[in-house]
Amino acid sequence: MANGEKMRSVVYHEYGSAEVLEISEVEVPAITENQVLVKVQAVSINPADWHFMRGTPYLLRLQSGLLKPKKGSFGLDMAGIVESVGAKVSEFKVGDEVYGESMGALSEFAVFSNKSLALKPASLNFEEAAAVPMAGFTAIQALRDKAGVKAGQKVLIVGASGGVGTFAVQIAKAFGADVTGVCSTGNVEMVKSIGADRVIDYTKEDFFTGVDKYDVIVQTAGNYTLKQLRAALKSDGTLVQAGDSSGVKAVIGMGFVFGMLKTLVISKMSKQKMPAFLAKRSKADLIALTELIESGKVKPVIDRSYPMAQVAEAVTYLEAGHARGKVVINI
Ligand SMILES: NC(=O)c1ccc[n+]([C@@H]2O[C@H](COP(=O)([O-])OP(=O)(O)OC[C@H]3O[C@@H](n4cnc5c(N)ncnc54)[C@H](OP(=O)(O)O)[C@@H]3O)[C@@H](O)[C@H]2O)c1
């Protein structure tokens, strides 16, 4: 590709709601010797995207820019076709179908480090593959690394119908767990269909007042208190909180920080384990997810897909907090 060629890219120049997003003509980025240029086919969006777009919690701005976004590029998860490779990249070649996570993915072309990219699972189309990285990392790292889920354990996934939850239900089943999902009425059948042994409809029943206790709880949604979550956990169980349930306080971020500190202090005094959790981008986990997908144990759940021109509608829909699986944008 010749230097200076133009592409369409979704960008924002100020923080705000989805109206700040615009499609701009920018130069196709150049790659260094360890990077790969990908012609993006599909992108999935995550709550992280709208947190960066809004600049909330404000604590995020320490990284992204205090008053205005420093970069303003949008999107993280994508699947596409390798357009060119740096001189030191031997793992990929032009034409390979790949997927991965990198800032600024919602563009016709995006740059990836060799370390944030893997070959796309052959059984998935681009939309499905784009749905995997961040939600998949979160689910596998919460269950395997933080909770150490073992076969036969009772696992509760709170927010089982969301982007992370739909992966967490399937991955917990793949690990041999007995899985209960929590979601609203309209999603009960879908959560059963992806393998949950039981589903609790939170509009009819509280998961924390019943007699059932869980070895592991992964919370991805809902404003549940630590007391409620611990009430559903066995005395030696593990709680992994992936979602921030501090509601309006999340605008500043102190609710999240205080919540983490409170959890840390209580976990020191209790046999219940409540490790701090932040999912990391990982090539090894992209490969682990590919294996789970290729063995038929995990299949991304796509709620809706939108064209690039409707990115604002897609983000507004995701922000409402009731997506059923993943929301994808086709390039
Ligand atoms: N810590 C980390 O490293 C990390 C990484 C990735 C994501 N996250 C966070 O994890 C959270 C989930 O991400 P996501 O991509 O899964 O979001 P998402 O797709 O927007 O989650 C939407 C889902 O939440 C469910 N939900 C809403 N209220 C609920 C309630 N009271 N009880 C149970 N389920 C409820 C909805 O189900 P219904 O429509 O049935 O209500 C919907 O299916 C976000 O807060 C995100 O920021 C954290």
CATH homology superfamily of the largest domain: Medium-chain alcohol dehydrogenases, catalytic domain
Bound molecules: NADP nicotinamide-adenine-dinucleotide phosphate
The helix/strand order is: EEEHHEEEEHHEHEHEEHEHHEHE
Q: Kindly state the number of beta strands.
A: 14
Q: N-to-C terminal Cα separation, in Å?
A: 19 Å
Q: What's the tally of helices? A: 10
Query: If you compute it from the alpha carbons, what radius of gyration comes out, rounded to the nearest whole angstrom?
Result: 20 Å
* CATH topology descriptor of the largest domain: Quinone Oxidoreductase, Chain A, domain 1
Largest sheet: 7 strands, mixed
List the uncertain runs.
none
CATH architecture of the largest domain: Alpha-Beta Complex
Give the number of domains.
2
Mean of all residue-level pLDDT scores: 94
Tell me the fraction of residues in β-strands, as a range. 25-35%
